[in-house]
Write a structure and sequence with these properties.
Phosphatase 2c, domain 1, alpha+beta, about 250 residues, five-stranded antiparallel beta sheet, PPM-type_phosphatase-like_dom
């Protein structure tokens, strides 16, 4: 598995995190805190995302991980991050730092995937098909942003990686034969706004990624943001793109 990636901040601090090894890749998109909100954590979103990425990478890098499910590994990583700051921070605060998780792992002749939150995994199949794997629970939430905390990590709500290790059990997971795929991509939503806002298709994104690489895809995102104003929310978001290729 050959992996390349690029990440770029949308503002001063990049709250995305990325990690990769010989047979895995992970993207986390930290949830930016609401202004003037007490998150109960002195460390912040960037710290949380990088800590969780590091704990995942450490667990995925050992041979024993190949016999464990990705959900179990994520559960343990979330728990470990929580234990590292339980004595200094209020882990029961509903506004505490959290992130999405997009994760792939090559395990012998299969590629396992996990998606939690709105950071998708997209497969480029050898038959030419493009297969996105998404978690649309956040997109289906139609209340005001201030009410999102009330449905975070509760049954029927929006599940993310935060202070609830059991959230890992609600991730979208699966496995595909490595012989069937040429590559797989992982994105934060700062890149997938090309699909959500600017009229691109998943096939368009994968074509640019395959031909020109992750940095060029992020540059295309920034160009679309500059030339197509008028969307609500942040004009620029943290953007991360990862491409994993598999030899035949």
């Amino acid at each position: 598995m050959e992996t390349t990636f690029a990440t770029e901040a949308g503002a001063d601090v990049n709250e995305d995190a990325v990690a990769a090894g010989a047979d895995f890749a992970v993207v986390l998109d930290g949830a930016t805190a609401e202004p003037d909100t007490d998150a109960g954590c002195r460390h912040g979103v960037r710290w949380f995302a990088t800590q969780l990425a590091g704990r995942l990478a450490a667990r995925l890098s050992v041979d024993e991980s190949r016999t464990r499910s990705l959900a179990d590994i994520l559960h343990d990583a979330i728990e470990a991050v929580g234990m590292s700051h339980v004595d200094t921070c209020d882990l029961g605060n509903p506004c505490s730092p959290s992130s999405t998780v997009a994760l792939v792992r090559q395990r012998r002749d299969h590629v396992d995937y996990l998606v939690l939150g709105d950071s998708p995994v997209v497969f480029a199949r050898r038959d030419g098909a493009v297969q996105p794997v998404t978690d649309d629970r956040l997109a289906r939430f139609d209340g005001p942003w201030c009410e999102l905390r009330q449905v975070r990590n509760v049954p029927g709500g929006v599940w993310v990686a935060g202070n609830t290790p059991a959230a890992a059990e609600h991730a979208v997971v699966g496995s595909v034969p490595v012989a069937d795929i040429a590559g797989v991509a992982l994105f934060s939503d700062g890149v997938t706004r090309l699909v959500d806002r600017y009229g691109w298709t998943w096939r368009d994104m994968m074509a640019v990624l395959d031909k020109n690489g992750p940095a060029d895809l992020i540059a295309s995102t920034r160009a679309a943001e500059r030339t197509t104003p008028g969307f609500p929310g942040k004009p620029h978001d943290d953007a991360t793109a990862v491409l994993c290729r598999f030899s035949q």
